[in-house]
Amino acid sequence: MDQNIEEQDFTFSHYRQKAVYRERLMDRGLSTLNYEKGAKVAIYTRVSSDMQIEGYSMDAQEGRCREYAKTKGWEVYQVFVDAGHSAKNLERPALQSMLQDAADGKFQIILVHKLDRLSRSLVDMSNLVSQLNEWEILLSSMSENFDFTVASGRFFFHMLVVFAQWYLENLSAEAVKAKEQMFFGRSS
Prior knowledge:
By secondary structure, the protein is an alpha/beta fold. It has helices spanning 14-21, 50-54, 57-72, 93-103, 122-135, 151-184, and strands spanning 40-47, 75-83, 109-112, 138-141.
């Protein structure tokens, strides 16, 4: 190896070039740690079952998020609520409304009680975060403190999404097993 590393000509595929040179919100040092007081925040809450709707889960999510926003000095723009919707995809009315407002620049931060309230799909969450970066919208979870400005924060975020998807897939498999047991009177 005669050449210095500086002299070597590195070539990347088209897709790698896009990834290498893409400006990301996290690269600008934006995190919940340094957002100024008065930043507008959209709170998103979701439950999937009727029992949760009639219980305290929705109110608890909203209340805790409002308290968190208050401690940060953020102004609540609006609370978006999807009651009785699964997180297996992004086709939820309040979520779509919130994303439209995000695209229109009506707030700077999306706050959720837990990340899995937003999505349990690795692909959907990756696409969503990419889109939020383009719109310069920060994603914040009041239960899980991840900081996109550091590698460990991004790693923690991705692990949470992987576990959320595993939970959904495992729950689905268990539901199928239970239905088979009820129908056939046997377990698999």
